[in-house]
């Protein structure tokens, strides 16, 4: 009888502990992996975007709530380090700033100016024939878009990425509402180009999104380009909040569009 009572008491303690863990505060986190390809066929350049909000990393431990836009915190030591002619270089396509991992740590304006900003696009320049798998880990934040991206008027090409850990339908990206103009056929419409895959989409004025982008969805971690044809453009692109549903609240509800997720207890806050 005493053994049964002890077992029940132990089980009660375990259940209480589990409930306490379940109800405790936590943030929604995720990761995606990008392969920086040094193959000479593509010149060693790999385009990518940023899908998360990233944290300051101190002694290898992220400081949740202390945001960072530095490659030293976002990329860390995952790329080849060395002098400029050897080290893998990260280049921001929106600002032209770059940085690389030297033997003494990250150097260059990309690091000095904290310019790895969500919404911008980047090229990883691997200066040898090797490939580097880089994992980007951070907070899943769908509360707002990080920064407005100017789309110049005329025949212009503008780099954009989407701070979202899910595959999002093109209709939910606020492209058309921002100023992206469609037409009756591809030559009369602006384009959304998916960099690194050669896929593209255009907007039919009555039938909606058309083209080759798989499932008419953008993919976390990829880079994109808005092509405003002649006579179009001249607006600021904003990917605003509320365009898509919030992320799932439990691991069992994961819809397969995020690599990893933990249960959130609040909406994520805005970067800016």
List keywords for this structure.
alpha+beta
3D structure, described in words:
The protein has 272 residues and is of the alpha+beta class. It folds into two domains: 29-139, no CATH class; 149-241, no CATH class. It has helices spanning 2-23, 71-74, 109-112, 175-178, and strands spanning 29-37, 45-48, 55-58, 61-67, 89-92, 98-102, 105-107, 122-125, 131-139, 149-151, 156-160, 168-169, 191-194, 199-204, 208-211, 217-218, 224-228, 235-237. Strands 2-8-5-6-7 form a five-stranded antiparallel beta sheet. It has a five-stranded antiparallel beta sheet with strand order 11-17-13-14-15, with no helix packed on it. It has a two-stranded antiparallel sheet with strand order 1-9. A hairpin with a 5-residue loop joins strand 5 and strand 6.
Give the strand order of the largest sheet, numbering strands 1, 2, ... along the chain: 2-8-5-6-7
Counting helices, strands and paired strands, the structural category is alpha+beta
What percent strand?
A: 25-35%
Give the C-alpha Rg: 22 Å
Summarize model confidence as the mean pLDDT: 80
Please report the distance between the alpha carbons of the first and last residues.
61 Å
Q: What's the helix count?
A: 4
What order do the SSEs take from the amino end to the carboxyl end, as H and E?
HEEEEHEEEHEEEEEHEEEEEE
- Please describe the biggest sheet, giving its number of strands, its sense, and whether it closes into a barrel: 5 strands, antiparallel
- Give helix % range: 10-25%
Number of structural units classed as domains: 2
Count of DSSP strands? 18
Low-confidence stretches: 1-25, 242-272
The dominant shape is globular
């Amino acid at each position: 009888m005493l053994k049964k009572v002890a077992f029940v008491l132990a089980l009660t303690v375990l259940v209480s502990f589990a409930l306490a863990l379940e109800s405790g505060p936590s943030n929604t986190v995720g990761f995606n992996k990008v392969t920086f390809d040094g193959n000479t066929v593509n010149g060693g350049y790999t385009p990518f975007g940023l899908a998360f909000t990233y944290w300051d990393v101190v002694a290898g431990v992220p400081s949740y709530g202390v945001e960072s836009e530095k490659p030293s915190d976002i990329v860390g030591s995952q790329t080849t380090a060395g002098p400029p002619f050897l080290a893998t270089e990260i280049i921001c396509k929106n600002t032209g700033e770059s940085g690389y991992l030297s033997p003494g740590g990250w150097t260059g304006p990309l690091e000095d100016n904290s310019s790895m900003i969500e919404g911008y696009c980047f090229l990883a320049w691997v200066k040898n024939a090797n490939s580097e798998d880089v994992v980007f880990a951070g907070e899943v934040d769908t509360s707002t878009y990080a920064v407005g991206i100017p789309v110049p008027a005329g025949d212009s090409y503008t780099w954009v990425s989407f701070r979202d850990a899910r595959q999002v339908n093109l209709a939910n990206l606020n492209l058309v509402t921002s100023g992206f103009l469609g037409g009756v056929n591809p030559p009369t419409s602006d384009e959304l180009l998916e960099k690194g895959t050669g896929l593209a989409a255009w907007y039919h004025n009555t039938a909606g999104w058309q083209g080759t982008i798989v499932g008419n969805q953008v993919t976390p971690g990829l880079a994109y380009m808005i092509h405003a044809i002649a006579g179009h453009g001249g607006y600021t692109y904003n990917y605003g909040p509320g365009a898509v549903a919030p992320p799932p609240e439990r691991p069992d509800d994961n819809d397969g569009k995020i690599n990893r997720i933990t249960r959130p207890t609040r909406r994520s806050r805005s970067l800016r």
